[in-house]
Amino acid sequence: MKFAWNNKEPEENTVILNLKNLSVFYQKSQVLDKINLEIQSHQITAIIGPSGCGKSTLLRCFNRLNDLNRDVSVSGKILLDNREIYSFHPVDIRRRVGMVFQKPNPFPKSIYENIALGLRINGYQGDIDELVEYSLRQAALWDEVKQNLRRNALTLSGGQQQRLCIARALALQPSILLMDEPCSALDPVSTARIDELMHELKTHYTIVLVTHNMQQASRVSDMTAFFNLRTSERGEKIGYLSEYDRTEVIFHNPKQPSTQEYISGRFC
Ligand code: ADP
Ligand code: MG
């Protein structure tokens, strides 16, 4: 289906996000240290690691959400499709790089409006009804809600709300979908549904998934980045990229003993 966003789909197996020496600070405290990471298009990249190692902070760098926090400063480079992300308009970057959060956060409006609102704000020129339906189908929610699109989104189950949030992000036809622990508030059945959905979505989108669920990471992702914490000379905990490889290597034959410890749950 062709829509009025007029996007160029990135080719498969090209580097869509390229981080070069990315460091992030909250005021004077460093939380991520010189991250070098290449994320391939049309793949699912899982980001795993202990709490506080900077996974959410990293995702917020990818769509410049950290810009909204004056305490945050960033050094190094992030290239999206070979272009420095600070050369995009922030609204444009957030349309190209969509985000789904840990807790489903639909607007307290109808299912329809949850999707249509963002389209109008972004000046979508095509047929809104058509794109609402298409996005709900892509998020595997259409059949469950098509009878009543005027229903308040907050009356949906948690799993349905999360799929609505995915549909809302997809309606803007992003190149990349960031998912920050999208299933941690969901039951196993809803989680399995979202795993399946992610697998289908990667034909059109690149997904970066932060998860604490090792089964999910090993089941759905192609590449896995293991972030860890080290203690600086000043006694601060700093996150760094410890190991990055194909998911099967990370889960079955990691190079770092700490990766093995983390994935087998022996990490402390
Ligand atoms: P993770 O998602 O891996 O658990 P976060 O990115 O949330 O890690 O946090 C990384 C570090 O940055 C933690 O030490 C956390 O306390 C700190 N941090 C996160 N958000 C803020 C903030 N808004 N202000 C100050 N420090 C923060
Ligand atoms: Mg987090």
Task: Label this structure with key terms.
268 residues, alpha/beta, Rossmann fold, four-stranded antiparallel sheet, 10 helices, globular, binds magnesium ion
How would you portray this structure in words?
With 268 residues, the protein is α/β, with parallel strands linked by helices. The chain has a single domain, classed as 3-Layer(aba) Sandwich (Rossmann fold), CATH 3.40.50. Helices cover 33% and strands 27% of the residues. It is built from ten helices and ten strands. It has a six-stranded mixed sheet, sandwiched between helices. Strands 2-1-4-5 form a four-stranded antiparallel sheet, covered by helices on one side. A hairpin with a 2-residue loop joins strand 4 (72-80) and strand 5 (83-84). Helix 3 (111-121) crosses helix 4, helix 4 packs across helix 6 and helix 6 runs parallel beside helix 7. The chain starts with 14 loop residues before the first strand and ends in a 5-residue tail after the last helix. Residues 55-56, 180 line the site of magnesium ion (MG). Adenosine-5'-diphosphate (ADP) binds at residues 26, 31, 51-57, 69, 71.
In brief, what are we looking at here?
Helix content is 33%, strand content 27%. With 268 residues, it is α/β, with parallel strands linked by helices.
